[in-house]
Design a protein that fits this description.
The protein is of the alpha/beta class. Helix content is 33%, strand content 16%. The chain is globular and about 50 Å long. The chain binds adenosine-5'-diphosphate and magnesium ion (MG).
Length: 296
């Protein structure tokens, strides 16, 4: 169906957590594919759906081996496994050294993920530097989301990385890959620090078509590092991610709208009188024309 790539420029702003929370809330069947050559985090952080341990030896490396003569959807699916909450995950490399086992498969991964039968794919690319091989997967994506924090150093590196990646992705071209940014920040900073990040990317020569804000919420994020929490669907992070995830899903496949519900929303919470997400912001409104942005 559709491939969404999630990456970061520097540091550890929350790319993996963003991929997992979006996967949990995704409105269609989805696989979260861990494509970070720094090594798998999901295998060590998340329990399996049955409460056991995920099999760290099954994932991208076994997929690469099985698909040497051609990658197919069924091979991708036979190498995925279910994490807590029923989320389908394709685990990444156990160690960075395993990157050689994947070799030059990255463009093929991109193509098969974007065409995966019956599933969208959210690929967590991790930190994407100048030479990181997983960059080759981005060209197949319908959207690249760069995750950052609302801090000056994060924004400087974000801008630099977007400028370089845009040379390849050609986001201004209808056939290129559009770029969005996801700012992880305290909801209280939405009107100042988050807005400043939006302005900083808006002023770039490169078009950044989408700008989103995800709540900084350590307790909510800890669930995606394996912590047990009562009613994770009520965390500030999950609440803020609902509207954003719906938007991203609509951006990459506008013909399918809220057809299904994801792992954390499959059992609707009893109405506690509070709204589902943060108050809708202007940048969370669907685009009304091409090139529209989501910043206020
Ligand atoms: N939205 C968030 N709110 C609070 N903490 C977060 C959030 N996203 C990530 N974190 C925390 O930041 C750290 C790095 O997150 P991670 O998702 O692994 O980042 P990356 O994949 O960019 O390295 C982890 O401790 C994680 O729990
Ligand atoms: Mg990560």
């Amino acid at each position: 169906m559709a491939l969404v790539a999630i990456a970061s420029a520097k540091g550890s702003p929350g790319a993996t957590t963003t991929a997992l929370v979006m996967g949990a809330l995704w409105p269609r069947p989805v696989v979260v594919a861990e494509c970070d050559t720094a090594g798998s985090d999901i295998a060590v952080r998340m329990p399996a759906a049955d409460g056991g341990v995920l099999d760290g030896d099954r994932g991208l490396v076994t997929l690469a081996a099985a698909g040497r003569r051609g990658l197919r959807s069924d091979l991708v699916l036979s190498n995925t496994q279910q994490a807590l909450g029923g989320l389908d995950v394709l685990l990444g490399l156990r160690t960075p050294e395993q990157a050689s086992g994947v070799g030059t498969m990255w463009p093929q991964f991109g193509a098969v993920f974007d065409g995966l039968e019956g599933y969208d794919v959210i690929a967590d690319l991790g930190r994407c530097g100048a030479q990181t091989p997983q960059n080759a997967l981005m060209r197949s994506a319908r959207l690249l989301i760069m995750v950052c924090r609302a801090e000056p150093s994060s924004v400087v590196h974000l801008r630099e990385r977007i400028s370089v990646l845009a040379e390849d992705l050609d986001p201004a071209n209808p056939h290129g890959t559009p770029i969005g940014v996801m700012v992880v920040a305290d909801p209280k900073k939405r009107r100042d620090a988050v807005r400043q990040v939006f302005q900083a990317v808006e002023q770039m020569d490169v078009p950044v078509a989408y700008r989103w804000h995800l709540a900084y919420d350590p307790e909510g994020a800890a669930v995606f590092s394996g912590s047990v929490r009562n009613r994770p669907d009520r965390s500030v992070l999950v609440r803020s991610a609902r509207a954003v995830t719906g938007e991203v899903a609509r951006v990459v496949a506008p013909f399918f709208v809220e057809a299904q519900v994801g792992a954390y929303s499959s059992a609707p919470p009893e109405d506690d009188g509070e709204p589902d997400g943060l108050a809708p912001q202007p940048w969370q409104q669907p685009a009304t024309n091409s090139g529209a942005t989501h910043a206020d």
